[in-house]
Amino acid sequence: MSAMLTVEKMVKVYTAHGSRVRAVDGVSFEVEAGTTFGLVGESGSGKSTVARCALRLVEPTSGESRIDGQALGPLRGRALRALRARTGMVFQNPVAALNPRLTIEQSIAEPLRTHTELRGQALAQRTRELLDEVGLAGAHAERLPHQLSGGQCQRVGIARALATRPKLLVLDEPTSALDVSVQAQVLNLLQELRREHSLSYLLISHDLDVVRYMSDTAGVMRNGVLVEVGPASDVLVNPTHEYTQRLLAAMPETPGAVPLHELRPDSTVPSENRILS
Predict the structure, then answer these.
(1) Distance of alpha carbon 220 from alpha carbon 228, whole angstroms
(2) Helix (H) and strand (E) counts for the chain?
(3) Are strands 200-205 and 168-172 parallel, antiparallel or unpaired?
(4) How far is Cα 61 from Cα 109, in angstroms, rounded to an integer?
(5) Cβ atoms of residues 261 and 191 within 8 Å
(6) What is the set of domains in the chain, with CATH numbers?
(7) What three-state secondary structure class fits 24?
(8) Four-residue CA torsion sign, 118, 139, 131, 217
(9) Element housing 113 (H / E)
(10) Are the C-beta atoms of residues 219 and 29 closer than 8 Å to each other?
(11) What is the largest CA-CA distance in the chain?
């Protein structure tokens, strides 16, 4: 199986007030085509910085990343934008990620205007197709972000990330700002989209349950270092590194809690899917 994303010896050093902080320290991993790589760790462990360096949204201090075999480091200008069009990103705060002055249709159309020749009716048709794909009705197209719930805004974020038909999505804490029932709906949607479009995901999360449910492979970060990596079923059930063991031991147990994968949109939990009003 080929690698959709390769990160090799990634380092990111920040300098502030005369001090140097190694936010990312020699991280290497691969996201194989059609799979999900879950990167888990505490806040401040460097996992989001790794993702941004991998796409060169933040310039790494050293190291290399490749998308589908093509190195990002030498690319500039149009060439870099063209390669980025083959990726998408879903952010942690779905409301803040959307321009409050743009309608939902305009927000989804932004990457299409930047990276494709679609205009007029063809552009409008593609945005409506994307809304339908993420389970939102056409009536949402003319609304502003504040008129939607958090879960609906995240669906818009996913639609926008899918606009240019990428093969790699970076999911940066995509459900941490949502309540548990809506989390399950969004995660199930992401799973369905991955199967339907043969997508690869780099999932960033501090939630071990989310990473376990979504991921084929998992990596655990601590203080900028990838301390353990392997099949998610091994790393997050029978870890070998003592830090991962401590993370699992610290997870709260909630008697009677329904596992994420059992909270389906058609369950008794109210669903936001296809809300027309």
Answers:
(1) 5
(2) 9, 10
(3) parallel
(4) 33
(5) no
(6) 3-249 (3.40.50.300)
(7) strand
(8) positive
(9) helix 104-115
(10) yes
(11) 57
Name the CA dihedral angle for 163, 168, 172, 176, rounded to a multiple of 10 degrees. Answer: 70
- Alpha carbons 6 and 149: distance in angstroms, whole number: 35
Residue 125's closest CA among 96, 72, 76, 163? Answer: 163
Could you tell me if 133 and 159 are in contact, meaning their C-beta atoms sit under 8 angstroms apart? yes
Question: For tokens 């058609």, what's the residue?
Answer: 266
Residues 247-273 have pLDDT tens digits of 999 887 654 444 554 544 443 333 444
CA angle 102, 105, 109 (to 5 degrees): 95
Q: What angle do CA 61, 86, 47 make, to 5 degrees?
A: 40
Burial 57-67 (b: 16+ CB within 10 A, else e): ebebbebbbbb
Q: How far from each other are the two terminal CA atoms of the chain, in whole angstroms?
A: 45
Angstrom distance (rounded) from CA 37 to CA 7? 12
Read off the amino acid at residue 73: G
Q: What are phi and psi of 219, to 5 degrees?
A: -125, 145
What DSSP element (H or E) covers 230?
strand 225-231
- Condensed to tens digits (0 to 9), the pLDDT of residues 70-106 reads 999 999 998 998 888 899 999 999 999 999 999 999 9
DSSP letter at 251?
S
Enter the DSSP assignment of 142.
G
Q: Report the amino acid identity of residue 230.
A: G
Measured at the CA of 37, the angle between CA 114 and CA 161, to 5 degrees, comes to: 20
The pTM for the full model equals: 0.90
Give φ, ψ of 236 to 5 degrees: -100, 10
